[in-house]
Structures are given as C-alpha cells and as structure tokens.
Design a protein that fits this description.
Layout: E1 5-8, H1 17-30, E2 35-39, H2 45-50, H3 53-61, H4 69-78, E3 89-92, E4 95-98, H5 108-117, H6 123-129, H7 131-143, E5 147-151, H8 158-165, E6 169-174, H9 178-202, E7 218-227, E8 229-230, E9 233-234, H10 236-253, E10 270-275, H11 281-287, H12 303-326
Parallel strand pairs: 1-5, 1-6, 2-4, 2-5, 6-7, 7-10
Antiparallel strand pairs: 3-4, 8-9
Helix pairs in contact: 1-12, 5-6, 9-10
Length: about 325
C-alpha cells in the first residue's frame, strides 16, 4: 500500500506555498504523524528553510548530488540504471526531508521527451515519468511515514506534471488578487488534462511488476493566504478578489457549472483563510523553527505570545481539515 501524497501547488508564485508546506510538515509531526516533506521546486526554498547554512553548504558540496532529489534521479537520467535510494534528511523526531536541488531543472527536458513515448509503451519512459512517485514512496518506507507533502514551483512545466501525477491530492494556496484567480483558471484545465493523459498512458505500462502512481490528483480545497486583516476582516481592497474565488474554483478546478456559495466563509472547498503573521515570520526565520513553536527566548514577547498561540490553532485547524479530506487518521 502506498503512502498518500499531498501536493501544494499554484502556478501563481508568491502565495506562501512553501511556508505552508514547511509549517504543516511540523504541525502534522507535532500531532503524531510521521511525515516526509519533499522539495520538488528547483529553487529549493523549502530545503533552505529547513537547513541551516552550514548543513546546506555540506549538501551542496556532496559528490554527485548524492544527498538530494537529483542524486536519486541521476542514474536514470544518465541511462545507467533506475532511480537510486533517496537520502532523507531527519529534521525532526517524526519529520524527514527529501532535499531539493537546482540541478533538478535539467530533468525537465527528459520528462517532456518521454511523455509522448509512454503512449507507445516504452519502458524507460514509464520509469522516468514515475520516478518522483517511486522515490517518494521509497523515502516514506524508510521513515514509515503516514503522509508525504510536496512543495512545487509556480509553473505548468513537465516537472510539475510528473510531480502532480505522483500526488493523490492537491491543495491550492491562493492570494486575494487577480493573478491568483488567473492561476486557478490555468491550473484547473491542466490538472484535468494531466489526469486524463496519465490514465491513457497507464494502461500501456509494459512492465506489470513496475509500480506506478494512480495519478488521481484530487483537489482537496484551497487556502487563502497572506491577506491583510483589519478588525478581523480583510481590508476592502482585497474583498472583491476573495469574493470571486469560490465560483472560479468551482468552475475551473472542479469543472462544475453549479452555483458556488457566495463567500469563502461558507464554501466547503475553502480549507482556511490564514492571516499574514508578518511580525512572527522574521523571528521564526531567525530561530529556524515554525512560527507556532516560537518561545520568549526567540523574541516572542508581549503581543507576539498571543500571535504564536493563534498561529498554532490556525495551522492545527488546517492540518485537521486536510487529513480528514485525505482520509489520514491523526493518532
């Protein structure tokens, strides 16, 4: 049985996607789940968030990219074998990280080349297309993980196609702006096209014993991030964009013409609306820990103490909703 994979994706950048994966990885682990977080964005910001500078330098100096996701792909990319056993960096008691690598961007052309060849039943093409999923499942087996969380870059390229095919669920972080809505309009059709395309290819897998991802890519909902709050309400400039999210999500992601709820507050597809914890983020980055684990010794004093508590409850609620929708039981 495979470990469930949840991707966090929007082809609009700057919506707090990496921060969400980082914080939810810690929150899931805090709730007793064994977690593997995977950095499949060549920019590798998730990896930089987890590792201090000394360890990051060691990883980058490692021979043959042996400690990163690209190291696991390299034998397959070079044509000398299949995927290599992944390194999982232990960053917490129940939390492991598959490290990102800027060299991953060189795998884009390989993935583009093999996608049409899968239709002809080419074995190597299936091995390349399914590589992310097989690496992540091996990583999960090493850690006896309950869930895998993936951070992705903001584009609709071949790397993200393969990563989303490897995913059972996708959570879409959004900002309250026009570009996030445009991202939804692009993302929904792409997800359906990739899901259908993989279904057509999957039946042509020539090696029956080679496990393949089902490619379900089920939308688990959206999270509205980084909206300014005044008196616990979004400032007026953002209200018009937030108001359009439910119908855009319903039409473009769910491919439904049913009328959606009028606001995100009563939209069942909305997982949460998270405040922008600007005052906590610099402290969290300095302390190299999630915002909700900050202590007075980290500078979380006075009003920051209440913000830390609020952040914990907010991310706990998000974690519970996501696990419920993904059918994952919290111990």
């Amino acid at each position: 049985m495979s470990t469930p994979v949840i991707a966090f994706f929007n082809n609009k950048g700057g919506v707090g996607k990496t921060s969400m994966v980082y914080h939810l990885s810690w929150m899931f682990a805090d709730q007793g789940l064994h977690v593997v977080a995977a950095d499949l964005d060549p920019q590798s910001n998730l990896t930089a968030g987890f590792l201090d500078e000394d360890r990051l330098e060691q990883v980058l100096r490692a021979d043959n990219h042996s400690l990163t996701i690209f190291g696991s792909l390299k034998p397959l990319k070079s044509g000398i074998g299949d995927i290599a056993c992944p390194h999982v960096e232990l960053v917490g008691e129940r939390l492991g990280l598959v490290l990102g690598d800027m060299a991953l961007s060189t795998f884009e052309d390989d993935l583009s080349e093999v996608w049409p060849k899968c239709l002809g039943g080419d074995e190597r093409s299936f091995r390349v297309t399914s590589a992310f999923w097989r690496i992540l499942q091996q990583a999960a087996d090493q850690q006896e993980a309950d869930v895998i969380l993936i951070d992705l870059g903001p584009n609709l390229g071949a790397i993200n196609r393969a990563a989303l095919i490897a995913s059972d669920y996708v959570v879409i972080p959004l900002g309250p702006d026009l570009f996030s809505l445009q991202g939804l309009q692009n993302l929904g059709p792409a997800l359906r096209s990739w899901r259908k395309g993989w279904e057509e290819r999957l039946v042509r897998n020539p090696v029956t014993e080679l496990a393949m991802p089902p490619g379900s890519i089920q939308p688990a909902g959206y999270v509205v991030l980084r909206h300014s709050i005044r008196l616990d309400r979004p400032v007026k400039a953002y209200q018009r964009w937030i108001a359009r999210i439910p119908q855009t999500y319903t039409e473009c992601v769910l491919d439904s013409r049913n009328r959606s709820p009028s606001t995100v507050d009563n939209d069942q597809n909305c997982i949460a609306q998270l405040k922008d914890y600007r005052s906590l983020m610099p402290l969290a980055q300095e302390a190299r820990k999630p915002m909700f684990f900050l202590k007075p010794a980290d500078g979380a004093l006075g009003a920051h103490t209440y913000a830390v508590q609020e952040a914990y409850q907010d991310f706990l609620a998000v974690a519970r909703k996501i696990t419920e929708r993904a059918g994952i039981k919290i111990p």
